[in-house]
Amino acid sequence: MIPFLLVSRSAEYESRLRALLGARLDVVTGEFLTFGADAVMDRVEGTPRIALLGPVLNYEETHGLVNALAARHPGVGLIVVREQRSDLEDWVDELELHAILSPSASDETTLALFRRLSDWLVESGKADAHDFDEPAATLVFEDTEEEITAESDGEEFDPGEFDQLVQAPPIEVWEFPPLEAGIATEAIAVVAPKGGQGKTTLAVNLATGLAEVAPNSVVLVDADMQFGDIVAALGLEPEQTIVEAVAEAAADEIVFKTSLTHHKDGFFVVASVPSPELGDAVTPDAVGRLIDRLRGAFRYVVVDTTPGLGEHTLVTLEHVTDVVFVASMSVPSLRAMRTEFELLRTLGLMPGNRHIVLNQTDKLSGITVRDAEHIIGAQIDVDIPRSSAVLLASNRGVPLIHDDVRDPAAKAIRSVVMRIAPEAHPKRRKIQRRRRSNDTE
Ligand SMILES: Nc1ncnc2c1ncn2[C@@H]1O[C@H](COP(=O)(O)OP(=O)(O)OP(=O)(O)O)[C@@H](O)[C@H]1O
Ligand SMILES: [Mg+2]
After folding, report:
1. pLDDT tens for residues 126-170?
2. What is the mean pLDDT of residues 323-332?
């Protein structure tokens, strides 16, 4: 159950709400309104209890969404997110809304409104108290009332009448699914000799795809000690990072678990060091021990690395079962990959399970896949075409293979996932959804 739904065109507001609600929030971006309100509804996971519409939606779009939501999810609480303007009263009169919330309302006010509306939905039998129990927002707020601008629907709910402290649920400590006896856990490092080749893109999508076959038994470690950006690529706002995960205090299992951040697609993230200076606080050996420890609890451990073969990456290679090597269609990148292979052979660190990925292929680069194989002296296992969908997904903080399943780059990345877990087929349901939304074009 994902109790909150946001449909909006504001990436900024989306990240604010994600920070407040974490895994309790499902987001469908307003772009899908181009295909109509039903196309948006097709992308909604489960049965939302409270829907936030806006900011940056017009009256017609909001109206269409209110009707579609009422038809598919009767009893859903409806909040329009927009600045107060003179036409507001018409909106309130004409749409069956429960509240209108300013996008610049404070976190306290926003959470207070959610608490108030969810209590009312429970009291009026439209929702169950446990519907809102999902992974915790971890902040405790004091209530204020001045930024809630209006309410309507003719029933008892009154978002203006706040008189109590709002208590957030307690911090949730996850129980990981037990590992099946006799199945060895796997750790997969994603490495590249140069920066910007697509390591993070692959690591994020590997974790996402593997989580389909092993829900909540996948962890993605951002071991890029310089500019780790997994949390940005996934729109997460972690409370803790790898620094806490390898600290002495994390010898305690509960402390260790709270250093992980949960992603709603069913995996955990160990966030990168918050700044490159702090990279020194995490020794290469600590990274090795962390991978071993995670392999004791998770079916799959995916590790994103710093470009090149620094010490952290070399130690990582000693602790993993598989390595995905990423290069792009440029001669310097391919030559660097060849040098990297030679070095790893010399060090005796060339992994048995090796997957060579050529990323951002396109016909304009002047070299072919065969040329690339010739330069690196090895066979390419998967080539991933250049696609604007990759950047779009990353800017929206959504893993590509769940954002645009029909995109050629997503399909190629999926085939990398299936080299590790052959059962990780794309979900039929998601493909059909996408088709339906395209049909309405
Ligand atoms: N197949 C692709 N098509 C188009 N753009 C891509 C593709 N793969 C990656 N990109 C884009 O290239 C940029 C670099 O990708 P990414 O961050 O995954 O690389 P990286 O190896 O992790 O980089 P860094 O070394 O900085 O950590 C990103 O903007 C990403 O969106
Ligand atoms: Mg990266």
Report:
1. 888 888 875 543 333 333 333 444 444 444 555 554 333 333 334
2. 96
196 CA: nearest ligand 1 atom: 23
Specify whether the CB–CB gap between 117 and 4 falls below 8 A.
no
Q: State both tokens at 78.
A: 């409806």
* Domain covering 4-151 in this structure, CATH number: 3.40.50.2300
Backbone φ, ψ for residue 201 (5° rounding): -55, -45
Distances (CA, A) of 411 to 60, 355, 361, 407: 35, 16, 14, 6
* Domain range summary for the chain, segments of one domain joined by +: 4-151, 186-439
Ligand in closest contact with the CA of 390: 1
Determine how many CB atoms are found less than 10 A away from the CB of residue 141: 19
Residue 309 near residue 340, CB atoms below 8 Å = yes
In order of 3, 35, 115, 167, 169, the CA distances from 141 in angstroms are 20, 38, 11, 7, 11
Q: How far is the CA of 224 from the centre of ligand 2 (A)?
A: 7
Candidate CATH numbers 3.30.420.140, 3.90.780.10, 3.40.50.300, 3.40.50.2300; the one for domain 186-439: 3.40.50.300
Q: What is the pLDDT of residues 220-275, one digit of tens each?
A: 999 999 889 999 999 898 989 999 999 988 998 888 998 999 999 999 999 999 88
- Residue pair 328/376 in contact (Cβ under 8 Å)? The answer is no
Instruction: Please tell me if the domain spanning 4-151 has the same topology as the one spanning 186-439.
Output: yes
> How many A from CA of 332 to the centre of ligand 2?
18
The torsion angles phi and psi of 247, rounded to 5 degrees, stand at: -70, 160
- Which pTM does this prediction carry? 0.64
pLDDT by residue (tens digit) across 367-404?
Answer: 999 999 999 999 999 999 999 999 999 888 899 998 88
For ligand 1, whether the C-beta of 313 sits within 6 Å is: no
Do you know the residue count of the chain? 441
What number of CA atoms fall less than 13 Å from residue 399's CA on the CB side? Answer: 25
